[in-house]
Specification:
Layout: H1 15-23, E1 29-30, H2 31-38, H3 43-56, E2 59-64, E3 67-72, H4 79-86, H5 88-101, E4 109-113, H6 115-118, E5 127-133, H7 142-159, E6 163-169, H8 170-179, H9 182-190, E7 192-196, H10 199-207
Helix pairs in contact: 1-2, 2-3
GO molecular function, one term: nucleotidyltransferase activity
Protein name: Putative nucleotidyltransferase
Keywords: Transferase
Length: about 210
């Protein structure tokens, strides 16, 4: 899955980014503005896509002065499908949260980080998942190992992207925090909580005297 433009998983042409722009706003936009927000293709190419989509009724085109303004026709039967395609990354996050709710050995914290969290990865990007647990890192229970392995397989089946699991015991997390490792700041900045404590709360708790 293209993590920056999920709709391109199904619509790899310029139509995908153009539709993504229209899904994300209710404002009427000129072809030039759609091109600027899409960040890809040429302006004539974007205008051609908009004209074609308006012929299908999925996009509404209204003349205003010397310009044509475009909006997504949200009453079109295809509009909900387009909206779902644009929001595939959020659907993936929701699936991950549901999967963690079913774990018999729950993590202290689980989150999405990296390009998958920021939404700036590509089709070949890994999906990075931080897992913090209270198991013995040297001898984790078989159930825990199986859960992590099964999740990695599920993520690949859901998205076509490989999952990169970053597993830490609580004491290992403490070491990362004390050492001031840069990746800790990345987790603070980007982490999207999937299960357990929010990472920022967990970091504060681990830094407090115990």
């Amino acid at each position: 899955m293209d993590l920056s433009q999920p709709i391109r998983t199904v619509i790899p042409s310029l139509d995908g980014p153009v539709l993504a722009v229209l899904v994300r706003t209710s404002q009427a936009l000129t072809g030039r503005r759609v091109h600027q927000l899409a960040g890809t293709g040429s302006e004539p190419g974007v205008r051609k896509v908009l004209r074609r989509l308006s012929e299908t009724g999925l996009v509404t085109a209204v003349e205003a002065g010397g310009s044509t303004l475009y909006t997504l026709n949200r009453q079109h039967v295809a509009a909900p499908v387009v909206e779902q395609l644009v929001n595939l990354r959020q659907f993936m996050i929701d699936r991950l949260r549901e999967e963690f709710r079913q774990w018999r050995l729950a993590p202290v914290h689980a989150s999405l980080f990296g390009s998958a969290a920021r939404g700036d990865g590509g089709p070949a990007s890994d999906i990075d998942i931080l897992l913090i647990h209270d198991q013995d890192p040297a001898y984790p229970p078989a159930l825990w190992v199986d859960q992590v392995s099964d999740l990695a397989e599920l993520v690949y089946r859901w998205t076509g992207n490989h999952a990169q699991m970053y597993e830490l015991g609580l004491e290992q997390l403490d070491e990362h925090i004390v050492a001031g490792e840069e990746i800790v700041q990345e987790w603070v900045r980007d982490a999207i909580t999937l299960a357990g404590l929010d990472f920022r709360q967990l970091r504060t708790a681990r830094r407090s005297p115990r």
